[in-house]
Amino acid sequence: MAGPPGGAPEDTTVRSVRHALTAAAVAAVALGGLAAFDGLDVAAPAAPQPAAVDAETHAVAAVAVRSTVTPRTTRVRPRPTTTPRPTTTAPAPAGSVATQILTRVNAERTKAGCKAVVLDARLTAAAAGHAQDMATNNYFSHTSKDGRSFVDRIKAQGYPVPRSENIAAGQPTVTAVMDAWMASSGHRANILDCSAVAMGAASATGGSYGIYWVQDFGR
Tens of pLDDT along 39-51? Predict the structure, then answer.
C-alpha cells in the first residue's frame, strides 16, 4: 500500500498506533480537553497548619504616670520603716504610706462595688524595693534595671499570684498620687479591678523626680 505523498511507505502497525493516538486525543477533547495519565499526576502539597498561639492574661501593667510638677531639688529624708516579714499579711503601721494609700483605694473600690483589698506585707516589700531602686538608680519604668518585671519582683517576695502594678513619680503627697492614678484609665482600672484581693504600696525619695511611688496588687 502506498504511503503519504512524498514520503516513505508507512508500516501498517505504525498507522494503527497513529490512529489509536488520534482517537484518544479526540476522546480527550470530547471529555473537556483534559486527560490524566498514570504516572504523571502530581499531588498538590498539603495546606500548612495554622501556627499555635497562646496569651497570658494573669497580669496587666498600666502605663506609668509622670507628674507635671517640677521635681523639688531638695531631698526629703524618708521615714524609717520596718521591713515586713514576707510571710505575713499584717497591716502597715498607722499613718504609713501603704496605709494611707489603702484607705483611699478601698474608698474608691467601695464606690465601684468592689470588695476592699487588704495590705499584704509581701506586696508592700515588692513595691518598696522597686520604688527605692528607681530612686537610687534614677530611672522610671516597670522593668527593673536587671530586667525583672513586677511579676518577678512580687513572686520573689513569696506572693504567688501577682495582678498589676501602678507607678508614678514627682507627686508630693498620697492625695496627689492617688488623684493622678484615678485620672488615668489604665491605673484606675488596676485600682478598681474587683479580682484583686490584696495590695502593697510604698514610696522612696531621690532621683530626678524627687519621689517615686509604687502600688502592687495581687489576686
Answer: 222 333 334 433 3
